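re: that complex we talked abt at group meeting.

here r the seqs, copy pasted straight from the sheet so there may be weird spacing, ignore it
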Amino acid sequence: MLTSIKTNKFEGSKTKELAMMYFRVAIILFGAQLLFGLVAAIQFLVPGFLFELLDFSVARTVHINALVVWMLYAMIGSVYFMLDDETEVEGVGIGLGKLAFWILTAAVTVVVLVYILVQVGAGTEASIWFINEGREYIEAPRWADIGIVVVVLVFYWNVFATYLKGKQTGIMTVMVADLLALAGLYMAGMFFTDNISMDQFWWWWVIHLWVEATWEVFVGTLAAFALIKIIGAKREIVEMWLWIEVLMLFGSGILGMGHHYFWIGTPEYWWEIGALFSALEPVPLVAMFVHVLYDWGKEQGIAKAAGKTGSVMNNGPAMAWIVTNAFGNFLGAGIWGFFHTLPQVNIYTHGTQFTAAHGHLAFFGAYATILIGMMYMGVQYAYGIERLRATFKSKMGIFLITFGVLGMGIALTIAGYEQVLVERAELGGGWNAFFAAQELPWYIQSMMWRAIMGVVTFVGFIYLVWDLLTIGAQAKKAQA
Amino acid sequence: MANENVSVWTSIPFWRRSAAWVTGFATILLIWLSFDTLGQISMNEDIKMNIDGKEVNKRVPGPTVINYKIGYAMSKERGHEVPTIGEKQPFFGKEWSQKEAADLLHLGKLTSQAKNCMNCHTLLGNGAYFAPDLTKAWLDPAWQNGGPLQGMTGKNTVEEAMAEFLQHPSQYPTHARMMPDLGITADEAKGLVAFLKHMSSIDTNGFPRNFSKTVEQFKAGGTNAH
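got the structure back, here u go
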């Protein structure tokens, strides 16, 4: 993982060197996400913890922003990682790409320090521009928004120019189109309005069309690429699946937007549209899971028939994370999303910990998993390992993180269920109802389990980082 | 596989075309519906239309709605509660002109973002789950005359009580989990209250359902949930 820092030189392709730079910052931000998540989890149990020093709002802002930003870093890293393999040419303008990386990283550092040290501003435009935009997930102040757009343009130019110059595979065609939509959508979140309904309407264009449409397609392309690389899946099969996934993901996800338009002031017709299309959203996720396992079994079967022994995988930990992704996406995004996507249920679950349960399971299952898998592919490449086998640390990492996040998701689901019944159905919401539900033992127990499982996740994260730092050198030694 | 003559089901060009058509169709439908929705959620400057109930497709009243009494009543026709706009009611002791009301709401919305309200509270149900939902906070019985929150501030109107609390939240601990002091000024507090009052007048299709209907029962002896 740290090859280029340790030796100050990287012997592989320039494009992949840039990929590794992005992966490294991603894993650091992942750590920040978990630490600030733990602070927020403790604040549910010990309300005085860091009160008026680092309040819940600050901890949570850093928690969710570090999440979004580490994922974007790992996504950009993954694109650079696959770029030269897919196009079969070295990336175009990688020097400029590196400059953009340093600008972005400096900007992210400043933004996070301002969140932590300045925290809030006066009710003026200047606060929105320089401190905090105060909109969940896209809190980054406007100056940083503009900076992000510029950096993303450089990144996109790298990708697009390389795509035009090199081989244009199906995987890269989907990637290039998806990235354009992904980047363009960010701009829907870059304006201010006094109208809160209008604000939330466009806010969802960024959040929903990212995580339930363009990011999902992005994951489909990564899985397609990884299956070819790790188990030697046939490109024709993988690419055909990819187009079917695009069809199903965009076919359900784009109009699935309706499930966010039930209660924000938008018209009733979104009830029917949101219910129908978001109910279809789990379908492609089932398909993706079947696809990964089927391809794996098929390649293994072909190898066996040819008289070969041993596994077809050349990267055990990456494949473990990718299979976890295939199932986690279906469970966290699909099942947990469907739980509360119908308006008849959502009128009670909307704005409770139920959403937080879904958020934890879905972001982890759908995105964190496969991006960690890509990091293992990065390590394998950086050290020139033919066959990367899981170590004890790899296994502890994936087990503890998965178990921890699953535990948090279940604890939050129980807390949410209690809120739905007591705060919302029984007491009808409002200030008293909210706190009545927060004080019940059911809720408090859930929050304790959430904090414990958060610690389990963090221990798993330590194993993961330790493994990423050591597995490459260890495997290289064993190989030689 | 690449041999297209075998079957259309294993033809990559077929799936590529289908993906493009489905994505294009979904996108066009989303954009078309968005135009309709944007028309319905743009602010309606003529509050009278909302009062008469004639204009049902204007779901977000303009800023001058702060000059009216707002309610939340069951609509038999729609099967859930809808906001009602009643007679005139002074807001901070006066009636606000179109310009004054718009400026106040602007200040309030800006302050709500600059103070990062959404990372503890939910607005229209979106945000964090650490503090109460603010969608209908203006209508919360706890803030009304005789309610505990208005009572603790020693003020006589909802708006004055809310503004007082927002400026000195940690002086009025309502729960072990307190709101921190965010340095909210008197003007910003007024703006925030206008923002909350405006938000309570938005037609949210009945969210939250049965808002605080059982608070009276709760105050009389709590719930059966223990």
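couple things i noticed - Chain B touches chain A through 101 residues (CB under 8 Å). DSSP finds seven helices and four strands in chain B.
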